[in-house]
């Protein structure tokens, strides 16, 4: 488990280096360790290294880990994967953050469940910046209209945007996704009718294979899993030359 602390330090160093290249303050970039499929022991090792919020793709897995680790002071959970409406009640019960909001029906269900729990939830709007049919998220051209509607949901604290860039070894193609997100963030800030989002300051983009490039393009949150915890037994979605997704 000492490897996890060392891996975290290595990722932190690379984040700092990317910030220097972009003339940014490293304190403006949040590292979210993605613990999907990882053991309780590995999560505890990252907790012992100082991390308190962990990202999970599948809500049931996150809910189970929340139940098993509730005794750890200050531990929090961010759900970063697609959410079906019938699982909104779980997110409303335990999550501190939800990064994959992409429909008004889901927003309404989350708001209702959160109101019942007497809680509020930080949310990010997921954008399909690559235009791939296989990915969830709103098309960029629909986001401003969607954002206007979110003002109706008091329990949702809209913080910003999230995306998964195209899976490619072509850096220009990946960077184009990040450019679209920055342009969309600017558009939202300029839209007078958009009163939610608190400045839309959050840009969650970048994973194990591209987080340094994402930082150079303005990411405020990077979601890193395998570079911290090691390879997971998941045959889906491999980064070119890296060997994994988050």
Characterise the protein shown here.
Helix content is 39%, strand content 16%. It is built from 9 helices and 8 strands. The strands form 2 sheets. Strands 2-3-4-5-6-7 form a 6-stranded parallel sheet. Strands 1-8 form a two-stranded parallel sheet. Helix 7 (171-190) links the parallel strand 6 and strand 7 (202-204). Helix 1 packs across helix 2 and helix 4 (88-94) packs across helix 5. The chain has one domain (2-229): Alpha-Beta Barrel (TIM Barrel). It is of the alpha/beta class.
- Mean pLDDT equals 92
Query: What string gives the helices and strands in order?
Result: HEHEHEHEHEHEHEHEH
Q: What separation lies between the terminal Cα atoms? A: 19 Å
Structural class: alpha/beta
CATH fold naming: TIM Barrel
Runs with pLDDT <50, length 5+?
Answer: 235-245
Specify the overall morphology: globular
Count of distinct structural domains: 1
Into which percentage range does the β-strand content fall?
15-25%
Tell me the major beta sheet: 6 strands, parallel
CATH top level class name: Alpha Beta
Protein name: Pyridoxal phosphate homeostasis protein
Pfam families: Ala_racemase_N
Domain Alanine racemase N-terminal: 7-232
Organism: Intrasporangium chromatireducens Q5-1
């Amino acid at each position: 488990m000492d490897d996890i602390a060392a891996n975290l330090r290595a990722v932190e160093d690379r984040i700092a280096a990317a910030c220097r290249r972009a003339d940014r303050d490293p304190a403006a970039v949040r590292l979210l360790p993605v613990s999907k499929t990882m053991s309780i022991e590995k999560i505890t090792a990252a907790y012992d290294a100082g991390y308190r919020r962990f990202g999970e793709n599948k809500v049931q897995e996150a809910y189970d880990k929340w139940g098993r680790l509730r005794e750890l002071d200050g531990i929090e959970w961010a759900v970063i994967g697609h959410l079906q409406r019938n699982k909104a009640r779980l997110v409303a019960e335990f999550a501190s953050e939800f990064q994959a909001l992409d429909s008004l029906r889901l927003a309404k269900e989350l708001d209702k469940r959160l109101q019942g729990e007497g809680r509020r939830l930080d949310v990010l709007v997921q954008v399909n910046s690559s235009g791939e049919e296989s990915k969830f998220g709103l098309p960029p051209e629909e986001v401003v209209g969607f954002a206007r509607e979110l003002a109706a949901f008091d329990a949702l604290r809209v913080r910003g945007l999230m995306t998964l860039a195209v899976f490619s070894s072509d850096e220009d193609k990946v960077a184009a996704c990040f450019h679209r997100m920055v342009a969309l963030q600017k558009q939202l800030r300029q839209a007078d009718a958009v009163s939610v989002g608190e400045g839309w300051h959050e840009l969650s983009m970048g994973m194990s294979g591209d987080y340094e490039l994402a930082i150079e393009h303005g990411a405020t949150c990077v979601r890193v899993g395998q570079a911290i915890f090691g390879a997971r037994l998941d045959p889906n979605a491999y980064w070119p030359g890296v060997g994994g997704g988050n």
